[in-house]
Amino acid sequence: MNRQKAIAWLYGEMPQLEEAGVLPRETAAALKAHYGPITIRSRRSAALLLFSVLGAASIGLGVILLLAHNWEQLSRPMRTVLSFLPLVAGQTLAGWTLLRRPGSLAWREGSAMAMALAVGASISLISQTYQIQGSMSGFLLAWILLGGPLIHFFNASGVALLYMAGLTGWAVAAQAEGGHALLFWPLAALLAPHIWRAHKQDPEGPRMRLLSWGLCGAASIATGFVIERSMPGVWIVVYSALFSAMLLAGRGPFRAVRFNAFHIAGFIGSAALTLILTFDGVWRHVGWNHYRSGDGYHPWAAWQDYGLALALLAGAALMLVRSASRKDWIATASGGLAALAAIGFSACSMDVPSGVIIGGFNLYALFWGATILLVGLDRNELYTINAGMAVISMLIIVRFFDADLSFTVRGILFIALGIAFLGANVALVRRTATRKGAIT
């Protein structure tokens, strides 16, 4: 049961408790003042919201396809008129929504999505009509700058997701064209008020879940294209700190979100990166001794990499301290990845043998997996136990490919791992069933 449903259940029980004299009226009023109003949305309203966004997107894309199919047969003046037609239609729908349906989330989301798509369509159609030369990165940047204000004006999460996708595409295009994406993080920061507002309104609602997944996906993909890579290996520190910060945020500020994207993406990213960093090839030619310059590299843009690494490390360290104070040992152990990556990067720059660094990451992976496993056993959490065993098992599996072992030995070890997984799950299920039987 999530928080809002629990509050709804409590409010439903209060009248009976008051009548029975179990709960004083003053206490009931204090509880309602503390928890506030219920913000549960029905499945019908959630479906209506989803269909409004999809409907607006489908109509907009359909109109664009129809225009594109008959475009060559039209005169230039007619093309100009039709180029502005989607924008006029979108503005008309948006104005009607603000005047007649300002309180309808479905209408706000649908009209904002239609308006955002109309902006992109008009830009591309005018550019094609008058043969205005430009690049993909320039088009995407103009689109997100013009469509971005719709997010806050309509409180539209659908447009926010479109904005994230467009911003990520712009970062990829900018780097592919030989430029840089220094504006990515300032532009991404413009989403912070909308995300915070959605979190405050309903931290467990569908909007917050969608925004969380969109944000984690965009950050995970775009970061690799945003960094300048003049300093070889700086990506190790950046991504380690990013995934550690995600996981810590998922177990801290955003722990109330269901299907927690920060927690899931942070864990998967941290686990995958930890295993990748146990290979020798990753640590070759890493550090400031191998600094790269010349065509294709922007020395002044490389300062973004250092600032990003320091900012993410600082954010992860702050959340790590809070997690340690709450005795959240999984989060505390997970936060060690960022610190170890920074130490490994510095050690490479000082010509420390890579074998020492690799050994450190192997030990960390084993320690992290064991910590998750032990916490899961202590709390009787099956998914936590499986997560810890998965980390340890994957470490063993990747080492199989490094070691000179026969297929027979590898097969026996795989069977042993499978038996261990099944045994732990069966034991925990029986233990849980025994406890339930004792309680009843």
Oligomer: single chain
Task: Tell me what portion of residues adopts beta-strand conformation.
Answer: under 5%
Helix content: over 70%
Please describe the biggest sheet, giving its number of strands, its sense, and whether it closes into a barrel. Answer: none
Report the strand count: 0
The gross shape turns out to be: globular
Structure description:
With 440 residues, the protein is mainly α. Among the domains are: 1-40, no CATH class; 227-403, no CATH class. Helix content is 77%, strand content 0%. It has 19 helices and no strands. Helix 5 (105-129) packs parallel to helix 8, helix 16 (336-349) runs antiparallel to helix 17 and helix 17 runs antiparallel to helix 18 (382-402). The longest helix has 33 residues, at 407-439. It is globular. The model has no long low-confidence stretch (mean pLDDT 79).
Q: How do you describe this structure in short?
A:
The chain has helices spanning 3-19, 25-35, 43-69, 76-100, 105-129, 136-147, 149-154, 157-176, 184-189, 192-201, 206-226, 234-250, 261-276, 302-325, 329-334, 336-349, 354-379, 382-402, 407-439. The chain has 440 residues and is an all-alpha fold. Among the domains are: 1-40, no CATH class; 227-403, no CATH class.
